[in-house]
Write a structure and sequence with these properties.
Subcellular location: Cytoplasm
Pfam families: IMS, IMS_C, IMS_HHH_1
CATH class of the largest domain: Alpha Beta
GO molecular function: damaged DNA binding; DNA-directed DNA polymerase activity; magnesium ion binding
CATH superfamily of the largest domain: Reverse transcriptase/Diguanylate cyclase domain
Low-confidence stretches: 349-357
Number of domains: 3
CATH topology of the largest domain: Alpha-Beta Plaits
Enzyme class: transferase
Keywords: Cytoplasm, DNA damage, DNA repair, DNA replication, DNA-binding, DNA-directed DNA polymerase, Magnesium, Metal-binding, Mutator protein, Nucleotidyltransferase, Transferase
Helix content: 25-40%
Shape: globular
Radius of gyration: 22 Å
Number of strands: 12
Order of helices and strands: EHEEHHEHEEHEHEHHHHHEHEEHHE
CATH architecture of the largest domain: 2-Layer Sandwich
Largest sheet: 5 strands, mixed
Strand order of the largest sheet: 5-6-1-7-8
Mean pLDDT: 90
Structural class: alpha+beta
Strand content: 15-25%
Length: 357
């Protein structure tokens, strides 16, 4: 019989904003938004002081400014955030090799079999949190349970700087009382569909048969059936595949002119291609992202039969995908390019580069 897994989810508290407050004492205790400006852009992260006013990540900066007139906008420093993230990841790896980063500021750790002599996952989580505080001067929240779904949910329960444990014997009862909107893996659209079906809590979801859920939600239906019972057999994957490499720019003024848009696309394509080369990646699908002045957002993609072979191909495809008429009518506030359908070093077999005709 396999042992019950011990999974920890570590989630840094307001990570980008906390790094800025750590590095600049004048920002401590003040409402800070990373990203955007008072008139333009989108908030990438908000400090807890800003969150008290209702400021949230992905919120338009204009809305954030209205909610919090004293909000301080800071330009992101992603190189600094990556460096801090690497420090934190190195702490994780002292306890287990089974570390699955979800982003710069959160990760799953499987400590069922670990490198330290601690008798419990809870003690390991406490020690990791303390080490992050002592060595990196930041706080983290931790969730501890028997699978990824429960550990992820648990890490939100005592934020900031908290820890919450869901023992295996309490998992099913815990999920029964959980609001469907708080289920990890259930987004706003799916939650709305559940509400329309009269499903508001885990106990409601648990009443549906697997076949009924699959019929309504496809393959995801089987996942919903299991998590309604506190079951999640997904392993912590230390070699989690990176799905895409991209970049985007938000403009200080809306762009309408085709030549200006092409110029910006060329800059973005160069940035993205440098990231692709750094990762030694290959990819077949190029996606253009456009956000108009009215905040409507569209994406257009093209998949090649072979791998994209250079920055020029990335740029030209973006140019071809750009909806010029709509851009001239509405104005563009953001452009982005992404390369996906990736192959990373060591994956698959060598491929012959081909040109599209």
């Amino acid at each position: 019989m396999e042992p019950v897994r011990k999974i920890i989810h570590i989630d840094m508290d307001a990570f980008y904003a906390s790094v800025e407050q750590r590095d600049n004492p004048e920002l401590r205790g003040k409402p800070v938004a990373v990203g955007g400006s008072r008139q333009r852009g989108v908030v990438a992260a908000a400090s807890y002081e800003a969150r008290k006013f209702g400021v949230r990540s992905a919120m338009p900066s204009v809305t954030a400014s209205r909610k919090c007139p004293g909000l301080i906008f800071i330009k992101p420093r992603f190189d600094a955030y990556r460096q801090v993230s690497e420090q934190i990841q190195s702490i994780f790896h002292e306890y287990t090799d089974l570390v699955e980063p979800l982003s710069l500021d959160e990760a799953f750790l499987d400590v069922t079999f670990h490198k330290k002599g601690k008798p419990s996952a809870t003690l390991i989580a406490r020690e990791i949190k303390q080490r992050i505080k002592d060595e990196v001067n930041l706080t983290a929240s931790a969730g501890v349970s028997c699978n990824k779904f429960l550990a992820k949910i648990a890490s939100d329960y005592r934020k900031p700087d908290g820890i919450f444990v869901i023992p295996p014997e309490e998992a099913e009862a815990f999920v029964e009382k959980l609001e469907i909107d708080k289920f990890f893996g259930v987004g706003k659209v799916t939650a709305s569909r559940f509400h329309e079906m009269g499903i508001h809590f885990g106990r409601d979801l648990k009443k549906l048969e697997r076949t009924e859920l699959i019929r309504s939600f496809g393959k995801a239906g089987s996942y919903y059936y299991d998590i309604a019972r506190g079951i999640d057999n997904r392993p912590v994957n230390p070699n989690r595949e990176r799905k895409s490499i991209g970049g985007e720019r938000t403009f200080s003024q809306d762009l309408y002119d085709a030549q200006e848009l092409k110029h910006e696309l060329e800059i973005i394509a160069e940035i993205v291609w440098n990231r692709v080369k750094k990762k030694q990646a290959m990819g077949k699908t190029i996606t253009l992202k456009v956000k108009y002045a009215d905040f409507e957002q569209i994406t257009r993609s093209h998949t090649f039969s072979g791998n994209v072979i250079g920055m020029e191909q990335l740029y030209r495809t973006g140019v071809d995908l750009l909806p010029y008429y709509e851009a001239a009518q509405k104005g563009v506030r953001l452009l982005g390019l992404t390369l996906s359908n990736l192959t990373l070093p060591g994956e698959g077999t060598p491929v012959q580069l081909t040109l599209e005709f």
